[in-house]
Amino acid sequence: MTSALTKHFGFLALLALLLAGCDKRASSRGEQIQVHKHEHKPLHHGTPVVLGDEEYHLELVLDPAAGRMQAYVMDGELENFVRIQAQSFNIAARLPGREEILKLIAVPNNATGEKVGDTSLFETQAE
Length: 127
Known about the structure:
It is a single chain. By secondary structure, the protein is α+β, with helices and mostly antiparallel strands. The protein contains 1 helix and 6 strands; from the N terminus they run αββββββ. The protein has a 6-stranded antiparallel β-sheet with strand order 1-2-3-6-5-4, with no helix packed on it. The longest helix has 20 residues, at about 1-20.
């Protein structure tokens, strides 16, 4: 329990420092300090989807020619792949006039050692 509390308070302290650093105030000359926008750039030029409170992201990459959609599980900064144990998961796709449930299946990758049950890549056929 102590470890969880320490982790929680450490996070709150870090959050307070970040918020203090992002404050928009007038300088001594009356100028506005520019606040930089927090951005994430998808590695595969796909569509990023935030999971939780930016704890994780999915990067959805559509290949219309192959009729395939891939989903990469990424960290909160959209920089590193996160392997998960799931063999599949579903997402709801909102299309004009309807919603479709897509089942994404785990994809093994011999080059990275990823396998079903320990992978960051999932895919489905998507017309």
